[in-house]
Design goal:
The protein has nine helices and no strands. The protein has 252 residues and is mainly alpha-helical. Helix 4 packs across helix 5 and helix 5 packs antiparallel against helix 6.
Length: 252
């Protein structure tokens, strides 16, 4: 394959149904996995963030260096962003005392700024244009902010807003349903709807993850964080094996 063709290949998967199923499982795994390291192992949010940030840096470096789309590598990088997002948001919200509302507001501003700069620099934030190193860097920075925002937003909804984990999951599930309805029933930009869905899957995963592993006294199911993480990882791996994914196709 010549260099020009290789450079034009997308490095991200098509946004099919299985993509969204794996994405929700990955964001839920990020919550249970992040909590397992920072809380169950008693390492704390700062140490947990340092560990996952190092894993994220390695995963992104390998992902950006790859010449074509590799499903396992891509989803490893996604999981890395969601685990570091979990511990980073918890560190900012709880250890630094910013609070859920403050953390959510700050991260939302950073996410919007990332999308704005990406659009101004590249002319599009559509995932099917992620075909160069520069675009891919913007893509992963944006995802990093969205994953961290999702943790703060999920915690704010469940705790500060007082909805609890189950009701929080219902709220974000309904919001995702609205996005799906808009996709099939309106002419709203597909790129806008993609990022809306991508962002919403993270707080959904955050509240579902908390529902699984928080103590019953706090409204959770008190499942082992290690067991829940192992099951979610298994779901992701089985999905990748049973439903092969292909790279996003360039729109014309």
């Amino acid at each position: 394959m010549n260099a020009a063709v290789e450079k034009s290949l997308s490095k991200v998967p098509e946004a099919t149904l299985i993509f969204w199923i794996i994405k929700i499982a990955a964001t839920t795994l990020g919550e249970t996995g992040g909590d397992a390291v920072s809380m169950s192992l008693n390492l704390g949010y700062l140490v947990g963030t340092a560990i996952f940030a190092a894993l994220f840096a390695v995963a992104v470096t390998v992902q950006v260096s790859a010449r074509r789309y590799h499903p396992l590598l891509y989803w490893t990088t996604i999981i890395a962003t969601t685990t570091v997002g979990t511990t980073l948001a918890d560190f900012a919200d709880r250890s630094l005392g910013i609070g859920y509302a403050g953390g959510t507001s700050l991260l939302f501003a950073l996410l919007m700024a990332s999308l704005f700069v990406w659009y101004r620099a590249m002319g599009s934030v559509s995932v099917d244009t992620v075909r160069t190193t520069r675009a891919e860097v913007f893509y992963w920075v944006t995802i990093m902010f969205s994953q961290t925002l999702g943790t703060a937003l999920g915690d704010w909804t469940a705790d500060t807003a007082g909805l609890g984990y189950t009701n929080g999951a219902v709220v974000f599930g309904l919001l995702l349903a609205v996005v799906v309805a808009a996709y099939y029933g309106t002419r709203i930009s597909r790129t806008t709807l993609f990022w809306a869905a991508f962002i919403l899957t993270r707080p959904l995963g955050a509240v579902v993850g908390d529902l699984l592993d928080k103590p019953a006294s706090a409204g959770g199911l008190a499942l082992s964080r290690y067991s829940a993480s192992a099951v979610l990882l298994g779901v992701i791996l089985i999905s990748l094996c049973l439903f092969p994914q292909r790279a996003a196709q360039k729109s014309h």
